[in-house]
């Protein structure tokens, strides 16, 4: 059976060119899309992610603002800053990097972002819109996964999709997008019994658990398309996904690599959401 790597870097590059040209057209009309990224504390992985998000914005010709805030910032101070950004006409998208330090309630913080600037799509207004099949902002990681499936012309209608991981950021919105595209969807979680009985049924397998290489070849249906959302740092410093790429590639028909798969697509969809927020004005 033939095997195809779904190249997230190449797809991201192509979509970012389109985003840059739409951005330039908007700038000509006097609107420069602007994204504010708030990072509270000094989580090393988060620092890398936010730097990449801001850099991608600048490369696309957008305005970006990275605010590094102290780990002991009070919730009131964070809410006040978000309120100011909600009113700032130069800012079209607001992203608060998660996870937040434990003393901050992420639900309260996310709900304080104006829904029309919530480019992560995490606000309940946006999560609800997605749930009823009328999305305004699709959460960036699942949105990027859908674009990757589209890029290989995968016939999603009628396919069996299994998602391993039920987070609000990836698993649940991924399920909604696949359902909307006509897939029959199962969401597995950490309490699922006999996980491989589910994963082996999947035509489309999406894995977002944060557990390195947990999906092995014996858990995958021959010919399945496998989307690996995990990014884990191994003891030797190398990155790996939640899927054991080396073994699964002999069973799957297509798979996303780590790095160079879902990661660059997540940032690309953030740019697209920010652009669309500005275009809607
Ligand atoms: N932390 C991990 N993924 C994400 C994401 O997509 N958005 C935000 N805001 N924080 C994250």
Element layout with pairings:
Layout: E1 4-5, H1 8-28, E2 34-40, H2 44-59, E3 63-69, H3 75-87, E4 93-96, H4 106-111, H5 124-131, H6 140-151, E5 160-164, H7 171-180, E6 184-188, H8 195-199, E7 204-207, E8 225-228, E9 232-233, E10 239-240, H9 245-248, E11 254-255, H10 262-279
Parallel strand pairs: 1-11, 2-3, 2-4, 5-6, 5-7, 7-8, 8-11
Antiparallel strand pairs: 9-10
Helix pairs in contact: 1-10, 2-10, 6-7, 6-10
This protein binds guanine (GUN).
Guanine binds next to strand 4 and helix 6.
What do these coordinates show?
The protein has 281 residues and is an alpha/beta fold. It has 2 domains: 30-118, Rossmann fold, CATH 3.40.50.10860; 139-263, Rossmann fold. It has 10 helices and 11 strands. It has helices at 8-28, 44-59, 75-87, 106-111, 124-131, 140-151, 171-180, 195-199, 245-248, 262-279, and strands at 4-5, 34-40, 63-69, 93-96, 160-164, 184-188, 204-207, 225-228, 232-233, 239-240, 254-255. Strands 1-11-8-7-5-6 form a 6-stranded parallel beta sheet. A hairpin with a 5-residue loop joins β9 and β10. α1 runs parallel beside α10, α6 (140-151) packs across α7 (171-180) and α6 crosses α10. The longest helix is centred in the N-terminal third of the chain and has 21 residues, at 8-28. The model has no long low-confidence stretch (mean pLDDT 98). Guanine binds at residues 95-98, 120, 140-141, 169.
Question: What is this structure, in a nutshell?
Answer:
This protein is of the alpha/beta class.
């Amino acid at each position: 059976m033939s095997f195809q790597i779904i190249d997230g870097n190449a797809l991201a590059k192509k979509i970012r060119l389109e985003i840059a040209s739409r951005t330039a057209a908007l700038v000509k009309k006097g609107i420069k899309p602007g994204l504010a990224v708030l990072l509270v504390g000094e989580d090393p992985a988060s620092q890398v992610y936010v730097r990449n998000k801001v850099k991608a914005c600048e490369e696309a010709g957008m305005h970006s603002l990275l605010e590094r805030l102290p780990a002991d910032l009070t919730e009131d101070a964070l809410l006040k800053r978000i309120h100011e950004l909600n009113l700032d006409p130069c800012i079209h998208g607001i992203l608060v990097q998660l996870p937040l330090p434990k003393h901050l309630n992420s639900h309260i913080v996310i709900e304080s972002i104006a829904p029309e600037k919530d480019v992560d799509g995490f606000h309940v207004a946006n999560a609800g819109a997605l749930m009823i099949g009328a999305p305004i902002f699709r959460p960036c990681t699942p949105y990027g996964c859908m674009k990757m499936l589209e890029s290989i012309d995968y016939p999603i209608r009628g396919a069996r999709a299994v998602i391993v991981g039920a987070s609000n950021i990836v698993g649940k919105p991924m399920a909604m997008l696949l359902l909307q595209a006509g897939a029959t969807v199962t969401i597995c979680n950490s309490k699922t019994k006999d996980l491989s009985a589910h994963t082996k049924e999947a035509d489309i397998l999406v894995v977002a658990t944060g557990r390195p290489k947990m999906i092995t070849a014996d858990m995958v249906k021959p010919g399945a398309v496998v989307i690996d959302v995990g990014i884990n740092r191994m003891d030797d410093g190398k990155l790996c996904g939640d899927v054991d790429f080396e073994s699964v590639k002999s069973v799957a028909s297509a798979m996303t690599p780590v790095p160079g798969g879902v990661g660059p697509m997540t940032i690309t969809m953030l740019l697209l959401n920010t652009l669309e927020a500005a275009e809607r004005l």
